[in-house]
Design brief:
Blueprint lengths: L1 H5 L3 H17 L7 H12 L4 E2 H8 L3 H13 L3 E5 L7 E5 L1 H39 L9
Antiparallel strand pairs: 1-3, 2-3
Helix pairs in contact: 2-6, 3-5, 4-5
Length: about 140
């Protein structure tokens, strides 16, 4: 898989991100901001336990910003907060079943976007080669 990733250029990565975000917006499900998605992915893709303070430090944002993101994630049941039984002053952020399902869906959406990007990249060289000949020097290109 790492070899595949090395073959994708930055424009293709941005295209995968765009296709993923558009698919998330279009689907019947939670619509997360970039910050909420960043917090969600940090909780689900990095080892815990996660605290508000730790998330704020890792993402380099304020604790109130993390709290607002967690409020939304909690409303959507994508994450939950629980008082740390070892230190009652600290709040732990936990994963949920619904959040795990959302991550699984997100992975599939991104995989589909990546396949579409690769298929387009394979098709583009043929289009680039035929485009100049198709124009035939007839001046069919339009300016701005």
């Amino acid at each position: 898989m790492q070899d595949m990733a090395a073959q994708i250029n930055p424009d293709q990565l941005v295209g995968i991100l765009r296709d993923t975000v558009v698919a998330l917006v279009r689907r019947d499900g939670p619509d997360l901001s970039a910050r909420q998605l960043g917090v969600f992915l940090t909780v689900y893709l990095t080892d815990g336990p996660h605290t508000v303070r730790g998330l704020a430090a890792e993402l380099n944002v304020s604790k109130p910003a993390i709290t607002r993101a967690l409020d939304r994630l909690g409303e959507l049941d994508l994450a939950r907060r629980k008082v740390d039984p070892m230190d009652r002053r600290s709040v732990l952020v936990q994963r949920t079943l619904k959040g795990s399902a959302f991550l699984r869906d997100l992975r599939q959406i991104m995989a589909d976007a990546e396949v579409a990007t690769r298929e387009l990249a394979v098709a583009e060289p043929a289009n680039v080669e035929t485009a100049p000949g198709a124009a035939g020097g007839s001046g069919t290109r339009r300016a701005g």
